[in-house]
Amino acid sequence: MVKLKYYKAYRVSLGWQILIGLILGVIIGALGYQNKLIINSLQPLGTIFINMIKMIVLPIVVSCLVVGIANMGDIHKLGRIGGKTLIYFEIMTTIAIALGLIVGNLTKPGQFIDITALSKVDISQYVTTEKSTSTGLSTILMNVVPTNIFKSLVEGDMLPIIFFSVLFGLGTATLGEKGKPIIDFFTAVSEVMFKVTNWVMKLAPIGVFALIGVTIAQLGVAALKPLGFFILVTYLTMIFFVIVVMGLVAKLFKIDLIVLLKVIKDEMVLAFSTASSEAALPKIMEKMENFGVKKGIVSFVIPTGYTFNLDGSAIYQSIAALFLAQAYHIHLSIGQQITLLVVLMITSKGMAGVPGASFVVLLATIATIGVPASGLAFIAGVDRIIDMGRTTVNVVGNSLAAVIIAQSENEFDRDKNKRYLKELNIK
């Protein structure tokens, strides 16, 4: 008994394990710069971990959405929640883009760079493996309705999956007692998948160690120096957005942002380390429900946010677009920057929660301001480093959104919230 108490007292939490894995990965990557043996040894571990995360995400999203919508049962209520959610997402994304443009104009990170030598660089190597999931608003709207839901599940297209799951949940709700076995089935599926999630998360420190190790080993610490100011400006802007902008919004809805950050700190570290929003999605959904947000709200808002509420990505794209324009000595008028804001509002929708998607959206955006596509080669090397930060902001933004929408609908269980915070020993 004494030994057991001793073990519990000194057991390292998952968050600390992930952080240790991150630090060790940076060290090994730096020591093994361009070492093919280290890169080839770590790459499979990181890939396996990300694949395991992708394996559990869709079953959780579908099962939770079906159960949440079926229990909600009111199509008018769902429409109201959906409207509030999309309006909130659009407002926050617009603020994020505008903030990025303001900071980019004030700091001018691209004026110190000579980029003209890259005018003939082929950037196909950076984009062939990436998939742009958004080419415009009309394309997004057309792709919302799946022609084959199983095809959408195989390809991981989140919007069609959400659309089908919402309709399926509403249809189940109309069956009354006949629909109860379906609800029970999907409830059991979600509970099983959350169990599997807990098992997969035990491997997170190894996955993080491998992913960051490969990244640093391929890039090298020296690769960060020429773009150090650009990286610094981007990170400081994202931190400002979380602390000030999200902080003010949270205060407006009487939410303690610091408490929320403490609750999701492990998922923030995981998202930062893997540069994948999907890695944190299962645990974020579970934690937000335990935090007091009703299942129906969590099931709808968070998966939808992975398509429509990517604040970190919006900040990066606006700063990066100005950075490249400044580097090429392209002056953008106020009108051109407003056009850029509108274009980013559209092209930023539908990005997948996978590493690199934001880079492809940026590729589709800079053409509107006359920046050569080859310029992206200059920031492609550090895209992964910035991706880690913007993914973390995306996760925080979607967690806050779930609580805010729940508050606005009186679907926030304060008693459950107090019990959960007490259980986590968070004040």
Please report the number of helical segments.
21
Mean pLDDT across the residues is: 81
What's the CATH architecture of the domain at 74-160 and 224-424?
Orthogonal Bundle
- What is the CATH class of the domain at 74-160 and 224-424? Mainly Alpha
Number of strands: 0
Largest sheet: none
The CATH H-level superfamily of the domain at 74-160 and 224-424 is: Sodium:dicarboxylate symporter
Alpha-beta content class = mainly alpha
Poorly predicted sequence stretches spanning 5 or more consecutive residues: 117-135
Based on Cα principal axes, name the global outline. globular
What is the strand content?
A: under 5%
Q: Give the % helix.
A: over 70%
Any idea of the CATH topology of the domain at 74-160 and 224-424? Proton glutamate symport protein
Radius of gyration, in angstroms, nearest whole number: 22 Å
How do the helices and strands follow one another from N- to C-terminus?
Answer: HHHHHHHHHHHHHHHHHHHHH
End-to-end C-alpha gap: 30 Å
Pfam family, one: SDF
GO molecular function, one term: symporter activity
Keywords: Cell membrane, Membrane, Symport, Transmembrane, Transmembrane helix, Transport
InterPro entries: Na-dicarboxylate_symporter, Na-dicarboxylate_symporter_CS, Na:dicarbo_symporter_sf
Structure description:
With 427 residues, this protein is mainly α. The protein has a domain at 74-160 and 224-424: Proton glutamate symport protein (Orthogonal Bundle). It is built from 21 helices and no strands. The longest helix has 37 residues, at 36-72.
